[in-house]
Structure formats: structure tokens, C-alpha cells
Amino acid sequence: MTRKSEDAGRSTIRDVATRAGVSASTVSRVLGGAYPVSSATRTRVMRAVRELDYVADARAKAIAGVGTPTLAFVLEDITGPSFAHMAHGVEREATRLGHLCLVCSTEGDARHELEFVEMMRAQRAAAVILVGGTADTPEYRDRTRRMADSLASVGSRLVLCGRPPLGPGAPVTVIEYDNEGGAYALVAHVLTQGHRRVLFLGGKPDHTTAQDRERGYLAAHRARGIEPDPALLLHGDFTRDSGHRLMRRAIEAGLEFTAVVAATDMVAAGALTALHEAGLDVPGDISLAGYDDIPFARDLHPALTTVHVPYEELGRLAVRTALGRTPETPDEHLLLGTHVVVRDSVGPVS
Amino acid sequence: MTRKSEDAGRSTIRDVATRAGVSASTVSRVLGGAYPVSSATRTRVMRAVRELDYVADARAKAIAGVGTPTLAFVLEDITGPSFAHMAHGVEREATRLGHLCLVCSTEGDARHELEFVEMMRAQRAAAVILVGGTADTPEYRDRTRRMADSLASVGSRLVLCGRPPLGPGAPVTVIEYDNEGGAYALVAHVLTQGHRRVLFLGGKPDHTTAQDRERGYLAAHRARGIEPDPALLLHGDFTRDSGHRLMRRAIEAGLEFTAVVAATDMVAAGALTALHEAGLDVPGDISLAGYDDIPFARDLHPALTTVHVPYEELGRLAVRTALGRTPETPDEHLLLGTHVVVRDSVGPVS
DNA sequence: ATGAAAGCGCTAACAA
DNA sequence: TTGTTAGCGCTTTCAT
């Protein structure tokens, strides 16, 4: 007739206590670990625990002050290879540090993002990691700033990972990787091969990651005294299909170029297929380069020259940095380097 | 001198109550939604909430009986494209249904998996979804059975997704997809092209997914009265590197075959590169097929013939099925179909 | 319509 | 070494 008997299984610490003939605190102490308990009682308690298959309710522990800390990871789409790698880094590091790891895909919807962050605030997550570039509008800064403040107000922390920083004073940790630098180096490499008309398959015009890579493309040209033809700057998004479509159109439009630099490896993959479909040889007729160094880059044919970004490390670092701070820690802003991986898809201009 | 003043931000429902000059219950009622509250009070409370930027502690709500339900997703490695798609499906459906979504990568470590499931039991997760094939040993069944029971005992539910079922009586939901059938159809397609010596690049010999696909390979041969040469059955794992290595060795060893079927698209990608490195043309010299239909399959050159698996749908279904049940629901066991996607990497035998 | 009090499952300070 | 009591932050009777 006890509560337990009708609600089989959901045993509480009191059920265990009763069964072991001790008080709830004693059970708590036995389970808690380091605390003096006679080995006789300990045995009895443990037996009761086993018999009831008892596990303490983590939520109750949490509000009593001894919860498993949680960490949240917010991205647009876990399906993108680079995001997946970051997610992996985050998840690995979080569990290593004894944290639970919540995920949320926003599908690029700011409202969804906002709601989720609010939930995380309610969950008292130790940190919320926002991943991936976005349009850097005043509205963005404002909204994000608000999230940062409200998280900070409950002792949590906002981390911006590969996402535009907010300017001074915002309680955020930002971890970036050098998109412009990577693109600069990559395009410099292409130019070194003698190419002068390099098509750029970019992302959304207002997307920070896309912008930074485009900036690198431009800078590399200008550093060699070349003013790139604006007609060679195409915009789409970071998907494979975008690359395919843009490339096909460029060919059909009779655009002249001897090399193409894609904003991501996904874009490059689509572009490569379009090039093949047009009967063009890479790098014989046209050179091609990507960005991100996803695992598949090696298996494209020809193997793709690209820029390596330490995504997994980025994720790990985000977690470590966010979790390693004390209230006195100044706001960090890290910038990770990238490097060009030369493979077979870029050759000398013919 | 209130608690709040020194512990800025972490305001509780009582802080709000005080500030609004009402009782905590009233605040709870206002926030709770549908309950008669004078609009004057409501306004005062809402103002206090805003001023304090208050959010109710989700954990406290949970133990009081009104928590946000949670759902856990356990896989080997989020980095694998097919896993990522399942994860996406799970996450999407979970949020659609108002659930939070926890993730854990086990890196294939059973102990890690066990620990995580125990944590989820403590969290009172609504369901725990275990993803991906594994060695189907008695030890596995035993361990998993135990997890299923212990989850059930706290009102949670174990879901096996693309993972071997446990036999009757276990409180689990299992969602599978037809690995054997898909492989059968794929290999039948290859045989139809006249190939008689088809190399199979398999996974770990005791991995269920690998076994099922291998079984399909075998069955398709036998259905045509062909007894496949055991020397053509190679084992590795599901990675790109495994495919590359296996393929290279097979070529070096002078193995004779006119087509190769890889256990996954990743394996196929590695194999393709090895084929190219050996100067072999696909499908001119050798035909090649994969399994999974990851997005990149289209961009391999030639575009990869493969088996489409509805991974995202699988994830969504797992969530819907697990969450949609009542204690009376019989244990479901769903089997999703797959289909061959014919592209350019398989051609007639030369 | 609102407040006081009890309770959710746990831990910790205080006694014994 | 162990039990009693008082919280943790919230919801929900039960009164009023």
C-alpha cells in the first residue's frame, strides 16, 4: 500500500531507506561516497539499492545543489560535415569534463535559437555554444547581446564559435578561426599557379563566414596588384547544390576563368560535378579549390586542394574555455589558424 | 540585504513575489498560464518578472511535476554522415514534440554507453535512442536487456535504431531498416550487368549491419545460382580509410574481380580513390557500388550507385514511436525499406 | 482572486 | 555513525 507498490519502479531515496531500515540521509551518505558509514549499514543500503534498482533523480540532486552540469550546443544543421565535427569536439570535451550535452538545430531560424537559449537559461546550463556564421546586422548584435546578458545573469555563459563577436563589454567568449587568412593563402596559392581569372563561388552575401572568405579572395588578388573582375564573384549558399547550380550557370553564361575557388568543400563538390558534366577536366582545363577540408575532399577526383580548419579542436576549445572560467576571467577572444592543404585539383594555368 | 542582492540575477520565484507584493503561489499562477488572476496583479507580476529577467528553474519545475521532457540520443560518432542524418531527424522531431535532446557519442565503448544510459535514467529521460549496429553477442543482449528493464522501471523507454533486437519480452522499441534486402537488390543489379566476380568490402565480421549487408550479397549470388568466391569477401570497418586500404591490397594481391560492392559509401569513397590511384577506370575497368546514399555519393566521379536509406526518417520515426506510446502499447518492431539508386559507377562487365 | 502550507526527491547542517 | 530538520525552487491543494 506504499506509494511505491502502485507506482512500480519509481523508487525514491525514502523507499530505499525504509527497505534498508535506515534514514534517508544515511542512504544519501552511502551513495554520496566519501562519508563515514559503518560497513554493515553500507551493505544493507547497497542491497536495497540493488533490489529496488534505484537511481537518484538527477533533477532533484540538481536543485539540491549537486547536479550534473549541462552544456548546450546550438547550430544550424548537424548534417553539415564541418558542423558535425565541431559537434563532435564539443560533445567529447563536454563528457570528458563530466557535462551532459544538449543539442539544438535551428535551421537558421533566429526565433528558434532565441527560444532554445531561453530554455537553456531555465535549465541553468553551464554554457551555451552558438555555432556558425550569420548575418552580422545590428539586430543580430542586439539580440545576441541580450542573450549573453540574460545567460550571464543566471551564471551561465554564451560562447560564439565561428560567429561574429559583439563588440566590447558583452559577456561572451568568442572562438573564431581565420577565414580571411585561410582564403588569402588559398587564393595566393592559386594565383601562384599563374591563374588570373579566378571564379569565386561564395555564400550568402551577408553571411560573415562567406564575407570573410571573400575578403581573403579579394585581398590575395590585390596583394599581387590584380583587381578581380566583379563578374567573377558569385553568391549562393554553402550547399552542394548551390555549388552545382552556380558552376553550371557560369559555364552556360560563357564566363571566362581558369580556376574556381569555392567557399566550402560542399560547394566545391557540386561545382566539380558540374565541371565534369560540362566535359571539363580538372585541373587540366580548370583548377578548383575548396574550403574546410572535410574528409571527403580527398576522395573527390581529383583530390581537392582546400583549407584545413580545425573544427573538432574548435569545439573542444569552446567547451574548455567556457567551462574553465571564473567570474574574474576577462572575456576571451581566440582566433585559430588554418592552413592550405595542397592536393591535386589546382594546377598551373594552361 | 536580500539573498538576491548579493547573488545578482539568480532570482527565484520568491524574489519576484516580493517585488510584486504578492505571494509566490500567485506568481506561479500568473506564469503558469490558465488560472484566474486579476489583471492588476498579473501586470504587476509580469513587470517584476521583466525587471528581474526571471526564468523559472526548469529542474525545480521538473521535480514539482511539470518539467520539459528530455530525450537522449546515443551513437558511436556523430561525424559519420548517416549518423548525422539520423541525429538530425531525432533532434528535429524531438523539438517538434517539445522535448529537449541530449546527445552522447560512445566511440563504440560499451562501458561509456552503459554509464550514459544510467545518467539518462537518473535524468528521467522520456526515451533513450541507441543507434547503429554492433556485435550481437549474448553479452550484448544481456547488457541491453538490462538497460531496457532499468529504463522501463523509471517510466522511460529504450529504442534500438538500426541495432539488433533483443528477442521477445524485452521492453524495447526497435526500428530497423532492411540492410539485407538493400544489399540483395544492389548486388542483383550488379550481377545483372554481367559481373560474376564481385568483390565485397565489408565491415567488422561481427557487426550486425555489416553482416546483414554481407548476407544480402551472398543471397543475391545464390539466387542466381552463383556460389561467391570466399576470397572476394573482405573485412574492415565502415571508414573511408578502410575502403582505401582494402581496395589497395586487393589490387596489389592481384585479386580478380570486375566489380566491387562496398558496405558503405564511405568505404566506397576510399575504394574509388584507390582504384583511381591504380589507374583503373570506373566503371570502364571496374564497377563500384556503395551503401547509404550519403549526399556526397553524387559528387564522386563517377557518381556512385548505392542504396538509399531513409536515415532522417528513421530518426524521426524512432522519436515518434517511442514518445507516442502508452504503457499498454505492445512493443513495436518496425522495418523500413530501402531502394537502389542507380547512378554511373556500375556498368556492364567488359 | 489570493495566501499559507504541504510536498516533489534530494542534500547538508545540526544534534545526538 | 546515524537520525532529525531544514532547506533547494517550484507547484498545488486547501483555506479564505
UniProtKB/TrEMBL annotation, chains A, B:
Record domain HTH lacI-type: where: 11-65
GO molecular function, one term: DNA-binding transcription factor activity
Cross-referenced SUPFAM superfamilies: lambda repressor-like DNA-binding domains, Periplasmic binding protein-like I
Keyword DNA-binding set for record: yes
Top-level taxon in the UniProt lineage: Bacteria
Statement: the UniProt record of this protein carries the keyword Phosphoprotein: no
Keyword tags: DNA-binding, Transcription, Transcription regulation
UniProt cross-references to SMART domains, sorted A to Z: HTH_LACI
Protein's UniProt name: LacI family DNA-binding transcriptional regulator
Organism of origin: Streptomyces cupreus
Source lineage: Bacteria, Bacillati, Actinomycetota, Actinomycetes, Kitasatosporales
